[in-house]
Amino acid sequence: xxxxxxxxxPQLPLEASQSATLRACAACRxxxxxxxxxxxxxxxxxxxxxxxxxxLSHLCHDCGCCRxxxxxxxxxPFAVDMPASLFPLAAAARKRxxxxxxxxxxxxxxxTPHDAAxxxxxxxxxxxxxxVALVFGAALALNGPETLFTRHLGSGAFYEVLPRTxxxxLFPLAAxxxxxxxxxxxxxxxxxxxxxxxGLRSIPSHYRAIKVFLQPQGSPTGVxxxxxxxxxxxxxxxxxxxxxxGYGVLLVLLAFILGFIEENFMGRYAPFPLLSGPVVVASLGxxxxxxxxxxxxxxxxxxxxxxxxxxxxxxxxxxxxxxxLIAFYETHAMGSLLCLHVGLLLALFTRLPFAEGADGFxxxxxALRFIxxxxxx
Length: 377
Ligand code: SF4
Ligand code: SF4
Description:
about 0% strand; 13 helices; binds iron/sulfur cluster
């Protein structure tokens, strides 16, 4: 059995509700058309070792489809909620794979979805407050209080508030360090799943894994969602709006790259004109993130808070502050808005290594391993 590859990793003590959900879904299999979690559940080791749980929990991207469709969800006595069961397991796997002292690790490890969500909110709010305070403090220390309330106009006006060298070095270096950490964790997961580096060379596997990763319309088995009985009430809203947020973030990243090119190769410095490439692309991306995250935050589980909401909330604040900066960059508010925006961006970077950001890497590895195991099964 493919799951036997992971027998070298310790068995994980699961909560009773998590075990019950995994057992119920493995027996029921009604939701196999929704995502890779359910087909993988059928092939991974029944005793749920750490690597199996890491694979299952990272295949879930919390689209909510199975929760909406589940005939055993609350108020049924089984109270099955697969994403709520998997979220704390993904958080525990992430913590173990990255093996770093985490912000929030001084509080007890999350044992329930509610604990995990509370810890995530605590870490996110603490990171946002500390980072915004640090950036305001740096601007005040370097340029004095008047820098926050003076109009700064023209090319390079941002750098009259915060030093250009610090901004240019801080974020690319932080991104490099984070990507290295995630890559290391991904390699650990790949090995725990019983794979070797040769398995990374298969182009067809990567192609199929990307399809699973992006979760387009069909399931990995090729069954369309429409094949499920309409009375199951599938809407797919969560998944759709997660994609909206994801594409918005990609556009904002593209805007950063365009801005970097403008600054370093074309001699034009931020803030850029309203109709320039970086500003138009960043605005479009921010609008997508705002629209998608507002809907995601409004889609609450009947069983309460789920993980990921605090991260989405941080993305929402970052997008709102970015749009406000674009809208008011020729006013006296620019200095304060810039510090707020950079502070929130810094908070996002401090959360990325330890929060849901790393899950993209792990989900791709889980999807790749899932595809390879299915081909062999
Ligand atoms: S989520 Fe509910 S309907 Fe879907 S497989 Fe599990 S028990 Fe069955
Ligand atoms: S929430 Fe979505 S991705 Fe997660 S197990 Fe359910 S259907 Fe699969």
